[in-house]
């Protein structure tokens, strides 16, 4: 039985006479990617078998060295940018200088995974056209798509004129602090680019490949409430008030009933209340003490906020602040947002135009058109740090399932399909003037 990759290559050959816009160089790109599929899978296996959990600084740097070895022979000037001040390994930055005056592309991926060295899930395993392993899809599969696309462009002669800058961050899954410093190089690259392409995984909806023109933000918030620590028999009286826990419950209930709107989600992930409450480092643990016959003196809740635009974020935060400020009797409350966080990648006309160009590639390859993905169906990502400055398209990596959990599985033929799409899109963009 022919593999899915072979059938995909055959479909390209059969489609070529009908879709006359596929140039000889683009046909060469498709043929090269198919011929080198085993090479791509071998690279994927090596990357996956090197642990690169975000806090495994040595492992992340080793994966960076492996990617350097792939990119330098393609004519990229590669730099390792260490980040000891953010307590993370660093980032790999690679630059290919093409013809002056042509559009500059920024390619984004990441070296790290969520699987630290103490995870039991450590090894690449292949079963036919499926592969499992830590980061096999997110985002080591994405990095393999980048390499496969660039190798095919070199073989077809379309790489030499292409202006490309690649940023492979070493802390996408657990960003270094302060994030303004850990993302400074990426933000600067976005400001000097014309197009940003993100190689995190492809998302399917109803079995159809989708294009990502938007990603929502990711921010964390904390509500802290106070009350009068009196005997419980006086609760709700003018002297004792409502207590800190009731005040926190009031606020969270009003968030739930008054905040909902399209493309917004907010979640409470941690709650504690009592006579005394303390938050641990990083705000991911809390401890509380108290008794049933007292009015709680303090309570705290931490949660997540995701929005589709900076305007939506500002509006929702103002509403949250107003709810928090409307105290119940005898209580106090404050709202704070963690510094940093991931901004939104809003669905701009420029992003939609990029998807239209990708669908032009799909048409010429004989592939189905890709509709814009509902932004509720994917999380935040590094591309959001540049999306305010440059037209952006996400989800150019391969298709995987079970990301961030043991058993993460990649559909291997999607490497060839995504690399072919990306290489032809980048080759066409290389001919466009700034």
From TrEMBL:
Source superkingdom: Bacteria
InterPro entries: Bact_exopeptidase_dim_dom, Peptidase_M20, Peptidase_M20_dimer, Peptidase_M20A
GO molecular function, one term: carboxypeptidase activity
Protein name per UniProt: Glutamate carboxypeptidase
Any Pfam family hit: M20_dimer
Domain spans labelled Peptidase M20 dimerisation: 214-330
Keywords from the named record: Carboxypeptidase, Hydrolase, Metal-binding, Protease, Signal
Signal sequence annotation: 1-20
Protein's organism: Sphingopyxis flava
């Amino acid at each position: 039985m022919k593999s899915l990759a072979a059938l995909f290559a055959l479909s390209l050959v059969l489609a070529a006479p009908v879709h006359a816009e596929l140039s000889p160089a683009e046909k060469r790109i498709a043929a090269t990617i198919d011929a080198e599929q085993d090479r791509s899978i071998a690279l994927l296996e090596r990357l996956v078998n090197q642990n690169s959990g975000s806090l495994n600084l040595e492992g992340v740097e080793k994966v960076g060295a492996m990617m350097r070895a792939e990119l330098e022979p393609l004519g990229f000037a590669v730099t390792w940018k260490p980040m000891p001040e953010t307590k993370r390994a660093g980032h790999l930055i690679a630059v290919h200088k093409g013809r002056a005056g042509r559009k500059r592309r920024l390619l984004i991926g990441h070296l790290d995974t969520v699987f630290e060295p103490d995870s039991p899930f450590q090894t690449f395993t292949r079963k036919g056209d499926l592969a499992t392993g830590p980061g096999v899809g997110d985002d080591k599969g994405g990095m393999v798509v980048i390499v496969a696309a660039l190798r095919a462009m070199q073989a077809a002669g379309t790489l030499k004129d292409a202006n490309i800058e690649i940023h492979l961050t070493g802390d996408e899954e657990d960003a270094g602090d302060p994030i303004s410093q850990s993302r400074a190089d990426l933000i600067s690259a976005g400001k000097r680019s014309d197009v940003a392409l993100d190689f995190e995984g492809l998302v399917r909806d109803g079995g159809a490949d989708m294009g990502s023109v938007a990603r929502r933000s990711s921010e964390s918030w904390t509500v802290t409430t106070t009350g009068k620590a009196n005997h419980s028999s006086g609760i709700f009286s003018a002297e004792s008030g409502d207590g800190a826990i009731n005040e926190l419950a009031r606020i969270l209930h009003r968030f739930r009933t008054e905040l909902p709107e399209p493309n917004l989600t907010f979640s409470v992930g941690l709650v504690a209340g009592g006579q005394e409450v303390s938050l641990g480092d990083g705000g991911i643990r809390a401890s509380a003490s108290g008794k049933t016959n007292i009015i709680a003196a303090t309570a705290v809740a931490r949660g997540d906020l995701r929005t589709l635009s900076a305007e939506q974020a500002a509006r929702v935060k103002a509403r949250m602040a107003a709810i928090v400020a409307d105290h119940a009797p005898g209580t106090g409350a404050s709202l704070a947002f963690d510094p940093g966080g991931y901004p939104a990648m809003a669905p701009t006309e420029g992003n939609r135009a990029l998807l239209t160009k990708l669908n032009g590639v799909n048409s010429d390859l004989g592939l189905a058109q890709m509709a814009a993905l509902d932004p509720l169906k994917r999380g935040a990502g590094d591309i959001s740090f540049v999306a305010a400055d440059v037209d952006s398209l996400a989800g150019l990596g391969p298709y995987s399932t079970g990301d961030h959990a043991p058993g993460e599985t990649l559909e291997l033929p999607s490497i060839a399909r995504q690399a072919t799409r990306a290489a032809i899109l980048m080759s066409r963009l290389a001919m466009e003037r700034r």
